[in-house]
Each structure stands twice: as C-alpha cells, then as structure tokens.
Amino acid sequence: MPDGQAGGDAAHRAAPGRGGGSPPRRDVAVTGMGVMSAFGRGTGPLLRHVSRGTHAFADVTRFDVTGCRVRSAAHAPGSPELAGELVAVVEDACADAAIGPGERAGCPLLLAAHAEPAVTGAAGGAGLAAVVAQRCGLRAGPRIYTAACVAASTAVADAAAMIASGSLDRAVVAAGYLVEPGNFALFHAGRALARDGRIRPFSAGRQGTLLGDGVAAVVLAPARAARGRGAGVLATVAGWGRTGDAYHVCQPRPDGAGLARAVDSALRRAGAAPAEVGYINANGTGTPQSDAAEAAGLRRAFGDLAGGVPVSSTKSVHGHALEASALVELVVTVLAMRSGTLPVNAGFLGADADCELDLVLGEPRPAQPRYALSVNFAFGGANTALLVGAG
Amino acid sequence: MSPRPATGSPAAEQDRAAGRVRGMRDVPVAVAVPAEPAAAPAGEALPQDMAIVSRASWPERPGDTLTPIPAFVVSSFSPLVAEVADRCLRAYHGTPPAPPARGARTAIVLASRHGDVGTTAAVAQALAEGSRVPPLLFFQSNVNAVVGYVAARWGLAGPIVCTCPVGDLIADGLECAALLLADGDASEALVIAADHGSAGEGDSATAVLVATGTRPPGRHRLAAADEPGGAT
Questions:
Q1: Distance from CA of B159 to the nearest CA of A (A)
Q2: Which domain holds residue B183?
Q3: In this complex, which of A68, A124, A258 lies closest to B157 when CB atoms are compared?
C-alpha cells in the first residue's frame, strides 16, 4: 500500500467528519513487535499455538484458588514480574524495529495497564510506565491507558492518529496483564469465568471467559520513513475506529450497532471496502450475550458479506489479558497475516444460531488477506476496531 | 479465597439500595467535603478550533453531596464521576438525554490518578480477610463502568477513553479530547477529571464539555468557561 503522504490518496483517507482541508495523512506501519503469553516469551510460541488452536488453560498455580468453583487460567509458570516482562517485550519490539539507543530518547512509551497499585505495583500504572520507559531508554508517555479491554487498542489508535497527522514520528505502544488474585476473585465473584475451564467463543454451550497472561509491545512509525531507513514494515495500521454504545454499564448493545460503527470508521479511515477484509480477530470472550452481540455487530458491519469473512477469537487459546488483550490480539493478527495462516477459533462445540459467522474451525486456514480487523469491546460500551494492512 | 454467588436475598437488596455491601466496611457515598471547594487545576491552552462550552465541579460548596448510583457500592468514585458529569451536561443540554445527533458524536474522556481506589481497596480487604468478594464489585471494578452509566443516561455514543495521567488530570484529559476531535471520531467530548482517595475524603472532580469549531447557535456560553484554560 502506498504511503499516504502523496496528496493523491489523501482525500479518501481523510478522517471521518473532517473537511477537504485536512492535511495529507501518513500511513502508519508496525515496524517491531514483542510478546509474552502463557506460552512464554516470543512471537514464535504464540503463533504456533494460535495456529493450531492448542490452548494454555490449566488450574492456577500462581496463587491459592482453593474453594473456587473455577480454578482455570492461562498463565506462564511461576510469578513473573510485570515491569520485567514489559521491559523484555519492549526490548524485543525495539530490536525488531532496529531502533538503537540513540533513537529511543525522543520516542514515547504509551502503556496500557491496570491503574491500581494492587495490580501494577506500588507506584501504580503511571509509575510502572515510568520504570519501563527509563529501563528501555524511552520517553515516558503522559498517561497510561486504563479503559479495560480497549485500553491497548485506544493507545494504538492515539499513536496512529498522531503519526498519521504528522505530530509524532514514532511510538512504542505496550500493554501488560499477568493473572493475579484480585481480578481472578472479581471475575469469579461476577460469575464471569467459564465453569468448564475453556473459552469457547461463538460456540453453543459457551460458559464464560478465563484470564490469561498477556504482555506485548509494538513499534509504530510512518511507513514511508520506515521503508526509507531500511526497516521492515511488518504490517500497517491502516484504519482505526472507536465508538460507545450509550447502552449499559457493562453489557454490550445486543444489536452490535456500536461495534459496527467502529468497524465502519476504521474502514472509512483506510479507504477500504468491507470486501477487502479477509480475516477478523474477534473479541470473542466466550460470554453468552457478548459473543452474540459481537456476531450481530459484525453482521451489521459486513452485511451480506459477513458469512464469507473468516473469524476467530484467539482468546480461546491464550485467554483474556484484560487491558493488554487488544495489543496481544493485534500482534496475533499481524503474525497471522504474515504467516498466511488464519488462527483457529478453539473450543468450539457446535453452532449457535445467534453467532452465525464464518468461524475458522478445526484446522488453521490458509489465506493472504489484504486487510484484517482486530475488534475489541469493553465494559461501559466502549468499542474499538483496528484495521491491519498487509506489510 | 472462596468467592460465593450473590444471594439475591432481601437483605442483599436492602444493602444494594442503601449503597453498601454487607460484611464489608461501609463507606458512605455522600462523603465529607473540604471547607472550601478545591481550586481548579492548572490547565493548558486549548487548540484553536476547540472550545469549552460547559463546565462543572464537585464539590461546589461546603457540605456538597453525591447522588448514589443504583448497584454501585462501597466506593465514592463512580458517584463522584456521575455527579460532576451530570452537572456539566445539565448546564448545557438541560435534562437527559442529549440531542441524538449531538450525543452520537460526543466522546467521554475520564482521567483519574489511580482509578477507583475505593473499590480496589475493598477487594484487597476481602482477599486479606479470606472473605468473599461482593459480586457487585465485579461490575464496577473498572472505571469504564461508570462511564457507561453516564453514556447510557445521556445518550453519548462517541469514543470512550479512560486514563491515569502523570501530570495534571484535566489538562491531559483535554489533550486526549483534542486528539479525538482532530481525528474525527467525535465532534464533542465530555472530559472528566476525578481526584479520588480510597476513603472518599478529599474527593474532587471537574468536568468540561468541549466542542470543535464555533459553538452551536442558541446556547449560552458559560462565562467561566470562555477563557482558554479557564475551566482547568
């Protein structure tokens, strides 16, 4: 895809609601990635497992779950420290993007994480961001993003918007969640965890979600500049959309209208047609009403095409990483596009009439999509859609 | 840790109505306020094409109180956010909801120092005592929840952004709003800065409604909000 700095293609990429006087927008590239999950550090193990649909759910050993009806999560061995894992994935992403120490000083770190010190350490989320930025030689961002399951995609959208408009030349977006007692207890108390110990997105008989470790980082930069310096462009963040449902404290709109508007916005921003989308990494938490609402939203966004767009939720393999989930899933989406293999929607038991989608079942599906979507939604009715373009 | 399901008993319903959770430390929703309202935080100059059209704060006066929100318990954080949002929106739109065409493109930005510390403290206390975590805390456990309450009440369907800024809360919230408006997914943004302590003491909040371009006709522009940074 050509760089949007050329005036000729600027008009169809102008942000929704902006007039013809909008400045040309730059294409945004993903130039580096790093990830840690229940499968360990690195993109390789994660790609292998999401491709095959082999999950990481097991009884929690990191802390005491005696007496809990549900004891499952997808976590790595031991008790890794969040700051250390964030530093590791940021270093991996920067190495992937060939960003040397001298180039890091002016590059901001935009971090998505839990706000509360009980989860992120004594200094809280902002303190965590400062520690990670300092240890990686980056500039600490002005804030951390905390909007639950869309926290990381919101950070990506902010970074992409600034890079596209020319107000920022590079950003590292990172996010992290490691399974811990507080959120496990909250999700357990809210009866949100799957009693059968599996996440079964869009499946008949799905019972809920499960938590999972997820720590990820991506380097974002203008595509033209990245190509000019010889750095690889792994993919582009071609479009992004964010909306609210205006519906409920914690339930999504059953008709998926808010999610559909987010998808529309991402497509419009990229100047892409629905028919060009060849894969959707869905939010798919395995929660009965949320998956049905998401399916309705995707059908609403894609209309008659909805039945032909492959969909999977890789939470079925790596679990729900809360504030980090959207970034882990963005990384998975980029990996899938580059590997030419669409991940399996694992845990599927049978069709649910409320979730009629073209799910990737059983075996990974070979595909070379031009665009893929990573969609997420969260408490409060927050929706995001990130449109990923082939690199 | 041995969480148990909600009972739905009459006692539980009474607790819910009264804004408390049985077995937990009861924290009043209407909290003590300082003798003088908190000074408006220092802000930054607004972008040229963004204007503040409404502003509110909590507390507005000594003895100011918060209105409880059904099913939100223990912590004053969510009532604080909802109250200041309501005041700001009422000053501009009157009674809820906002006009649909406006609400559809109004974003909400919530900036707080550490999120809902009161709810986090209640969860930590339950874990430390080995008692069950009250189920209602799950539904308010992320700050998005109260934003959803405000959005549903007022019909605000733009993007939702929740942050913990390093610096000044309202200034950073305005920066987020400016980016959203410039990027095009919203034409207006309700920016809420909530300064919240675990016990509710010393809580304060500011809300401003910002819009792109010139203000819509027929609306009174608040004098206090006329000056760039005046609401901050």
A1: 4
A2: 28-225
A3: A258
| Cβ contacts of A185 on chain B, cutoff 8 Å | 1, 3, 123, 126-127, 133
Query: B35's torsion region: left (phi>0), alpha (psi -120 to 50) or beta?
Result: alpha
User: Which whole-number Å values give the CA distances from B142 to A55, A277, A332, B47, in the listed order?
Assistant: 27, 32, 25, 30
Residue B5 lies in a domain: no
Q: Assign residue A372 the CATH number of its domain.
A: 3.40.47.10
A185–chain B Cβ distance below 8 A for any pair: yes
A65, A186, A265, A325: best to mutate for the B interface, most B CBs within 10 A: A186
Tell me whether residue A203 is in a domain.
Answer: no
The answer to whether residue B54 is domain-embedded is yes
Q: Does A361 touch chain B (CB under 8 A)?
A: no
Of A116, A181, A380, the CB nearest to B120: A116
Q: ∠ at Cα A314 (A310, A315), nearest 5°?
A: 135
Q: Kindly report, residue by residue over A133-181, the tens digit of the pLDDT.
A: 999 999 999 999 999 999 999 999 999 999 999 999 999 999 999 999 9
pLDDT digits (tens, 9 = 90+) for B130-189: 999 999 999 999 999 999 999 999 999 999 999 999 999 999 999 999 999 999 999 999
How many C-beta atoms lie closer than 10 Å to residue A79's C-beta? Answer: 12
Distance from CA of B172 to the nearest CA of A (A): 7
Q: Per the domain annotation, does A315 fall within a domain?
A: yes
Instruction: Examine residue B36 and state whether it is found in any structural domain, yes or no.
Output: yes
Instruction: Residue B220: give its domain's CATH number.
Output: 3.40.47.10
Q: Is B22 left (phi over 0), alpha (psi -120 to 50) or beta?
A: beta
Interface check A265 vs B, CB under 8 A: yes
Asked if A278 and A372 touch (Cβ cutoff 8 Å), the reply is yes
In a domain, B231, yes or no: no
What's the pTM?
0.88
Q: What is the count of structural domains for chain B?
A: 1
